Amino acid sequence: MKFKRILLKLSGEALMGEQGHGIDPAVVSMIAEQVRLIQAEGVEVALVIGGGNIFRGVAGATKGMDRVSADHMGMLATMINALALQDALEHRGVQTRVMSGIDVPKVAESYIRRRAMRHLEKGRVVIFGAGTGNPYFSTDTAAALRANEINAQVVMKATNVDGVYTADPKKDPRATRYERITFQEVLEKNLKVMDAAAIALCRENKLPILVFNMMEPGNLMAAVRGEVVGTLVN
Predict the structure, then answer these.
(1) In whole angstroms, how large is the CA radius of gyration of the chain?
(2) What predicted TM-score, i.e. pTM, was given to this entire model?
(3) pLDDT for 165-199, tens place per residue?
(4) Looking at 95-230, which runs of residues are DSSP E strands?
(5) DSSP category for residue 96
(6) If you average pLDDT over every residue of the chain, what do you get?
(7) CA 178, CA 184: separation in Å to the nearest integer?
(8) Where are the domains of the chain?
(9) Pick from 8, 9, 16, 24: which is nearest to 53 by CA?
(10) What would the pLDDT profile of 53-106 be if each residue is shown by its tens digit?
(11) CATH superfamily of 5-233
(12) Contact by Cβ (8 Å): 221, 195
């Protein structure tokens, strides 16, 4: 395996499948199986999950809600997704811990860096919920932050397209995929890889980002083996 420890970033929208909202158990099951397969090969896996399939703080704020309250609602949405994925993984015999950026002791451990690293060393999958625990920060930024904190070797951003394109491939048939691109190019060209704060964190700490299509079975395994999958930002 090329990577021993990874941070996998999943959007909340990825969990809803074709439903348009909520959680599609079939999609969660598919994701859990891919994670189980790489974890069985000795890869230490941490995950950060968004909550856009349930509630997005920014969207709520644009409709008149207080931004801080809306973001806290979004954090709780990520916890719902984290618990759903934990359940799917444990049904497959994978020991899993959910760690939260906000205190919800009845359902998850509070995030403590050393404890998270010990869980990974013991072969447990760690799911980071509630983003950074602070309003105004996206789960993209949370993924970059947690990846750096736990000394992950790469941030793997799972999407439903096979990498980063010059334009939206669903709208522009002439769009071409980048195999490699620099952090600076991502910022200059305003490519929607992750938000600017996340890109800056990864660039500053020389942490690569791999953008790939996780909906294609086998892609996650290929990515951790170092095969050419998606787009590498470094």
Answers:
(1) 17
(2) 0.94
(3) 888 777 888 888 899 999 999 988 888 889 999 99
(4) 96-100, 109-110, 125-129, 154-159, 164-165, 177-178, 180-181, 209-213
(5) E
(6) 93
(7) 14
(8) 5-233
(9) 16
(10) 998 888 888 888 999 999 999 999 999 999 999 999 999 999 999 999 999 999
(11) Acetylglutamate kinase-like (3.40.1160.10)
(12) no
